[in-house]
Each structure stands twice: as C-alpha cells, then as structure tokens.
TrEMBL record:
SUPFAM superfamilies: MoaD/ThiS (SSF54285). This is Thiamine biosynthesis protein ThiS. It comes from the Bacteria. Pfam families: ThiS. Gene3D superfamilies: 3.10.20.30. InterPro entries: Beta-grasp_dom_sf, Mopterin_synth/thiamin_S_b, Thi_S, ThiS/MoaD-like. NCBIfam families: thiS (TIGR01683). PANTHER family: SULFUR CARRIER PROTEIN THIS.
Length: 65
C-alpha cells in the first residue's frame, strides 16, 4: 500500500497504524501518530485501517539535556 509517511512516499505492507509503527521499529510509548492532520491515540492505532495515499506523520520524542 502506498502511503505518505513523514513527507515521503512509502510502499508499506501493513493494514493498520500499529503495524506501521512496528515496521519502522519505533518505541510505541515514545511516538505520536498523526493521520491526515489528526492525532490518533495509541489505543486506536490497531483499529485505524490504512487507506491508499494516507498522510501519516510519525513523531518520536527524544530525551536530552
């Protein structure tokens, strides 16, 4: 499935947001997911089905100091 993730085209073998985060090997508790301009709560990732051409932003928090 063709998706736009963080501004780049990606062909992804996933059916929901949870699988997208897993495919990118991100720590779920450190990621915020936005789909077509709307933040999706982590509890809803598995139930959010992907559609061709969706715009997804994966924002990962990084500690520092």
């Amino acid at each position: 499935m063709q998706l736009i993730i963080n501004g780049e085209d990606h062909n992804v073998d996933a059916s929901n947001l949870e699988e997208v985060v897993s495919n990118f090997e991100l720590e779920p508790h450190l990621v915020v997911v936005e789909v077509d301009g709307n933040i999706i709560e982590r509890a809803n990732w598995k139930g959010t089905e992907l559609k061709e051409g969706m715009r997804i932003e994966l924002v990962q928090f990084v500690g520092g100091g």
